[in-house]
Amino acid sequence: MIRLVTLEKLDPTDVVALKQALWSAFGLGTEHSGDRPMPAEPAVRDGQVDAAALLAAVEPIRLVADDKVVYLAGARLTLPPGPLGAPPAFGFAEYGAQRAIVSLAGLPARGATEASIEVWRRRLARETIHVIGHLWDLHHCYDARCAMHPSWSPGLAAAPDADLCTFCREKSERKIRLAKS
Asked: What CATH number has the domain bearing residue 152?
């Protein structure tokens, strides 16, 4: 089961669209497990919230052994700097574990037209599929059309697809089947 928890108010139709995209990507039940308040004092650096600290500070929900939970936050996220500096953070996952967070702040403007809303929803779905992929032990993919392609890549399309490539889909399905046994 994939559980979505909002730390930011979202339009209910956006949540339904995200649930449908996750069902399409992973074939698992997906539910909105409610809203949680944003933690009072997350670690802030340069106006951005430390993603790992926020994930550790957020009020947890009860999970069963193979459940995955994704928190949707409005704050800009930051990750610890690497050798090339701080990477852009569209989300953060505890690799191979149960919890991840996606930032709504890095998405394109939602706008008011059907076209801009659809672009926003597709990008939200892509970023959510990406972090859930990391929860299922998927690494970044070289295929720029795959949701596991890095979000910061210059090769990423302006309105990328929210689909997994064949290799990543098969690997995630193998992990999901093993989790069910």
From this structure: 3.40.390.10
Chain Cα centroid distance, residue 143: 19
Side chain identity at residue 63, one-letter code: L
Pairing state between β 48-50 and 77-78? parallel
Number of domains in the chain: 1
Give the tens place of pLDDT for each residue, 8-40. 889 999 999 999 999 998 888 899 999 998 887
Sign of CA dihedral 116, 123, 159, 22: negative
3-state secondary structure of 87: coil
Could you give the percent of the chain with pLDDT greater than 90? 42
In tens, the pLDDT along 43-52 reads 676 778 888 8
Alpha carbon distances (Å) from 150 to 59, 122, 131, 160, 176: 28, 16, 10, 11, 22
Range of the domain at 10: 2-180
